[in-house]
Amino acid sequence: MNAPVRTPAAVTALDLTVNGRAVSRAVKPRTHLADFLREDLNLTGTHLGCEHGVCGACTVLLDGEPARSCLTFAAVCSGASVTTIEGLDDDELTAELRAAFTREHALQCGFCTPGMLVAARDLALRLPEPDERRIRVGLAGNLCRCTGYLGIVRAIQSVIAERRGRGVAPAAGERPLGSVGAHVGSERAAISRAADRTAAERSSPAVAVSEFVPAHTFEQRFTVAFPAEDVFALFGDVRAVADCLPGAFVEATPSPERIEGGIRVKLGPIAAAFRGAASVSRDEADRAGRILGAGADGRSGAQGEIRYRVIDDATPGISEVVLTVGYTLKGPLAQFGRPGLVRDVAGRLTADFARNLEDRLAGRDVPEDRGSQSSGLNPLRLVTGLLFGRLSSWLRRVRSRSSR
């Protein structure tokens, strides 16, 4: 009997530069860059962890930009320049980061460290100042199971501070982005990026949700010990309103009808910032307004609408604010979006907001732990307060029944 004929697997010619050295190989089309570096070139400093592009242990530089080598096919890197952790042995900035990681105890088992150093180097090149929030956001794609990140963040902060103190300026201009091996610095890529930015501006969240239909809606009411016209006038100053809302911040006001900003959320050592844009409209005659916007933190997204109306209370000098809130949550955040929980948390948040409004109208400083200058909105604290409040209410009812 004749043996079956085996068709040789197709291969692709690959020519690229790895750590400054020209490399030519024949690879199978589905070979990942990480496997090619480790198995063909014996560059085992590139670690494989999740192999889903989540943990960041496989991060290398492609055309000077951090990229996941476990998700990148080697064949598409032809013509690209690849730098692994081994290629950074003589890099001055990487040497500073290695020393800082040692000094700040920023590594334990060391498995994540190669990818972490590649990401840290990129941050040290780009960030104008050692901003902890921006560093944590920049490291969001690099997971560490040992250190808790505090030492890593401090190490990067110290290197950035030292470099800026020596007069080393951050990398100028917007960081070029593009597909792997696309030579992103080319004129063609620049034209493509300009087109992408134009398209993004046309589809900004404030415009995209103009016909927004919320998944959930609820109403909140509170009173303020100031005349309705004063309260409504303050609502017209979006920065002043943001100062009164815990965790909120405004980054830009391109026009009276549009704001850009977000809200910072802090749960223990974990901090995130939801950034987006919103459209603002006001009806002076009815003392009413509407804020419609959308934002995201990279994994979760939210769309929301706040309609407000300021009316005169029966008591002179007192006004009532009626808020109608509609929202839709997407991503992991949606698991915390049960209407009852959101309504209860919003009630406690509204109470802080009302007190801050009164302080602002009275010319008093908003307490740091209640204003937007705090470390961020803390849902855990709000929910804990709710639970204690409900427990106290239940105990009072039990005592009342037992005393009868």
From TrEMBL:
Q: Please state every residue range assigned to the domain named 2Fe-2S ferredoxin-type.
A: 12-88
Q: Which domain of life is it from?
A: Bacteria
> Which keywords are on file for this protein?
2Fe-2S, Iron, Iron-sulfur, Metal-binding, Oxidoreductase
Gene Ontology terms, MF aspect = 2 iron, 2 sulfur cluster binding; metal ion binding; oxidoreductase activity
- This chain belongs to the protein called 2Fe-2S iron-sulfur cluster binding domain-containing protein
Q: State the organism named in the record.
A: Hansschlegelia quercus
